[in-house]
Design brief:
2 domains, seven-stranded mixed sheet, globular, 14 helices, three-stranded antiparallel sheet, Rossmann fold, alpha/beta, Phenylalanyl-tRNA Synthetase, Chain B, domain 1
């Protein structure tokens, strides 16, 4: 999106002068600032900066020391102009991001590409010391809508299910985490979300060959039965193909991340005001189970009208199960009840 004139976003102002600026990602950048204010990043690289909007906001709104990079000379000139507009001095690189991140290390690396981050991941994981933030907009490849593309880019088999956004987020995290382990690094997911056309993840990095190996307990497969909706997850150390109780064969999605999608203590600290606050409040209350259930998919399977989702949650909790809404969809929920119990409860309402 190429906007004309002065743009005000957050606490900053920028000009685009023909350089790409995506107004639809404003919510993401707003949410990032809430996250960034709770990180102790020192030197942060806005690796694919375009107009520099995210890095400039990180400087002013989160107190980061930012270096900017873009391979396009026009973008570099726009970044420099926007730094002047906001009274900031910063280092601006005009390089291939992958090469820059191989020759220089940063406390925090941020990748926000147009499409897939895969071509930059190796270098980003090599460069990042403490934090890595990644956006992906190639959601079809990640969530299973484009299975072959997912295999090519992420070396993961996925097909579209009712919880496809969670699948996509887990595929992306799995690829980042497994790439980090090549450099004896491990990661903890601080917070992640899926919204509209993109996935966004923020990870904290540590260095230990032992812990890098142990992280594979959280890389595995989701086994999904298309016939009855049953599903479960297993790590790569225990995953074997098997048959569902309904008699159908499971399809196996992965390898992907089967660990936590957020750190509860970190999310608890995040500001819950405004639209971004609603997202973080939902994440804070979300049950940490693998995959969610889409209400309309279940009621189509059962051939009944969908009851209010709140009644389902209340009934599950009354019967001793844990249950919550999700960050992925307003008509989805998570629970530790099995598929047969979920169906029974829906039919009883």
């Amino acid at each position: 999106m190429w906007s004309v004139g002065l743009i005000h976003e957050g606490m900053v102002k920028i000009e685009t002068n023909g350089v790409f600026y995506n107004s639809k990602m404003r919510f993401c950048r707003d949410a990032d600032m809430v996250v960034f204010r709770n990180l102790d990043s020192r030197i942060y690289l806005d690796a694919l900066a375009a107009t520099g909007i995210r890095g400039i906001r990180a400087t002013i709104e989160a107190g980061f020391t930012v270096e900017f990079n873009d391979i396009d000379p026009r973008a570099v000139e726009v970044i420099k102009k926007n730094l002047e507009l906001n009274g900031i001095k910063a280092v601006v690189h005009n390089e291939d991001a992958a090469i820059l991140m191989r020759r220089k290390k940063y406390d925090h690396v941020d990748l926000d590409p147009f499409g897939s981050p895969v071509e930059f991941l190796e270098s980003a994981c090599y460069s990042a010391r403490r934090y890595i933030s990644v956006t992906a907009t190639d959601t079809a490849a990640l969530c299973g809508s484009a299975t072959t593309s997912g295999l090519r880019k992420y070396s993961t088999y996925a097909v579209k299910t009712e919880y496809y956004h969670e699948t996509g987020l887990r595929v992306l995290i799995g690829r980042i985490v497994s790439t980090l382990t090549k450099y004896d690094k491990f990661a903890e997911v601080l917070v992640s979300w899926a919204k509209e056309h993109y996935y966004r993840v923020h990870l904290k990095i540590g260095r230990s060959s032992k812990k890098a190996g142990e992280i594979y307990e959280k890389i595995g497969y989701i086994f999904h039965c298309r016939k009855c909706g049953n599903r479960f997850a297993k790590s790569v150390f225990e995953a074997e193909s098997c048959e569902c109780d309904c008699g159908s064969r499971f399809i196996r999605l992965g390898p992907l991340w089967i660990g936590e999608l957020h750190n509860a203590d970190f999310v608890k600290k995040l500001d819950k005001k405004g639209e971004t606050g609603k997202l973080f409040e939902t994440i804070e209350g979300e049950l940490e189970t693998i995959t969610y259930y889409e209400l309309h998919n279940l009621t189509r399977m059962l051939r009944v009208s969908p009851p209010p989702i709140q009644r389902i949650l209340e009934k599950l909790i009354d019967e001793g199960y844990r249950a919550s809404r999700t960050r992925f969809s307003g008509t989805s929920f998570k629970t530790d009840a099995n598929i047969d119990e979920i169906k029974r409860i829906i039919l009883s309402l």
